[in-house]
Sequence to fold (583 residues):
Amino acid sequence: MNSDERPLSGWVARNRGLTGLLAVTALALVLRLFRLGSRSAHWDEARVGYWILRYQKTGVFEYHAVIHGPFFAQVNSVLFQLFGANDFVARLPVALVTGLLPLAAWLYRDHLRESEMVALALFFAVNPILLYYSRFMRNDVLLAAFMLFALGFFLRAHATGEARYLYAGTAAMALGFTTKENVLLYILSWLGAGALLLDHRLLLARDHDRGWTGVFAEYAKRTGTSVSRFAPHLLLALIEFFVIFVYFYAPRARGFEGPGLWKAFGDPTMFSAVISEAIVGSWEELTQQWVTSHGHAYLPYLKHFVKVLEQGALPLVVFAILGFLAVRYVDDRPRDLVSFAFYWGAVGILGYPLVTDIKAGWVTAHVVAPLAIPAAVGVALLYRWGREAYEDGDDSGMAAAGIVALLVVAQVAFPAISIVYLHPQDHQIPGMFGGQEDNHLVQYGQPADGIGPTLEKVQAVSKANRDGTDVLYYGYLDDQGQYIFYVPDEGDNEYWPPASSWYNRLPLPWYTELADAKVDSTLKNDTFDSRKPPVVITRTEKRPDLDGYLTGYVAYDHELTLFGSETTIYIKRSALREANVHA
Fold:
C-alpha cells in the first residue's frame, strides 16, 4: 500500500499548485450542484425555458436578441431530451462550466505565482455574485467564464507557440459569442486595456530617454512575429469560429418555409441563405434591439451597481485595488496581465450602468470576473506577509494578517450562505450585524419565496387531468387599457412573439409547459358557472370576483416577482385528491 501511495504523494508535492486548483474546482462544482433546482425559476429563466420547450415541440428556432444568444436553446434542448426538463437540468450547463472555471487559473501560470493562481481559483469558486448567478439559467457568468478561458488559452498560445491553445481559445471565444451580445463589450474592453498597456511602455520609454517611436516599432514587430508563428493556423481558427457561430445562430424551420440548418443538408443550395441569416440576420437583429439608448438616468443605475458589488464582492474589489497597486508600484516592474485585468474590470464599473437596460445584479459578474485576477494578487500578498511574519516570529504581524483573513472569510461566507442558499428568493435578508437589509443580488423578476410547493401542485393536477382545460387564467384590463393575464387567442403563444399579456404570467408558463398543460384565459367571471378547471389563476385583487364561484377550491396567494405582483392560484380540491397531492 505504501509503495502505491508514494507516487501519488510525490506527484502532489511536485504539482502543489495544480493540486490546489483541482481541489478548489471540486469545491466549486459541489457548491453549484447542491440543491441546484430548489429555487423557483426567475422571470427570465422561465421565459427562455418556455421557448426552448416550444422549440422542441415545433422544431422552429430563430435568434431573438431580446432573449440573448442561442446557447441555451441549442444546448438545453439536447439536455431536456436526454434527462428531462426541470429547473435543475436547465441550470446545469451554467453550473458545470462555471464550476470548472477555477481550472482556468492554470492557464495563467506564466503570469501568476502559485499562491496567486489558487487565490484566483477560490475567488471564481466562492465569490457570492459569481456563485449565485452560476446557479441560474442566464448567460452572464457563462459569458465571463468562456472569455476568461479564451484569454487564458490565447496567452498560453503566445507563451508556448503551440497551435492547440489557439484552437481551444477560438472555441471558447466562439461559445462566448453564442451567449450574450455584450461579448462585443469584452472585445472593446480588451482592446482598450491593451492600448493602455502599450501607453505604459511608451511612457516608460520617454522617461528612460528611449524614443517612443522605436519602442512602438519594437512592439509592433514583436506582435507580428508572434502572430506569424500561427499563420498556417489562423485561417483554420477563423473557420472554426464561424462553424460554431453558424451552428448556434442558424435558423431551424422544420415543416415551415424558409432557410433551416437541417433542411440545408437535404438541399445544399440553401446553405448560403442559412449562413447569411446566421451572420447578417443576427447582426441586424442585435443592432435593432440593443444599439439604442435605454433612456434611463445614469446615477441610479450606477448606485445600484455599486450596492451589488458592496454586498457581494467588497473584499474582491478591495484586494483588486491592492493587487493592482502592488504590482504597479512595489514589484520590480508592472505585470501586464494584472494591469490588463484591472483596467478591463474598472471600466466596466463605469460602463455597465450606462448600457444595461434594467437594474440587475447579474451584470456585475462582468466586472467581478476580471477583477478577480488583481484581487488574487492582493490576497497572495497578504498570505506572504503572514507567512513572513510567522517565519520571523512576528506575533503582531501574524495577528494582523490573521484578523484581516478572518474578516475577508466572513465577508465572503456570510453573503454566500445567506443569499445563495438560505434566502435566494427573498427581498430582504438578515444583516451580518443584526437587523434586516435589502438583498441587492436578487433581481425583481425572481418570485418571492414559498411558491415552489404550489407550482408542484399545479403541475401534478394538470398531468392528472384528463379532460378540457387544465389551467384557466382570469384576466382583466388595467388602468392603461392593457390586458393582464388574458390572451384572446392562446395559439398566439405557441410561436414567437407571444401576446404582450403573456408576459404577466411569468414564470408560470415555464411550469405549465413542463406539465404539457392545456391553458386558456377569460375575462368573464360567469365563465365559471359552466367551467370548473382544476387550476384557476388571477391577480389577488380580483379574488372578490371569483371566491363565490370557486367554493370547491383551495386558494394560494403568492408573489410572481419579489413584490407588487400578488397572484392567487386556485386548485380544485377534487383535483388534488385525484393527483394524490395534499392541499
Q: What stands out?
A: The chain is about 60% helix and 5% strand.
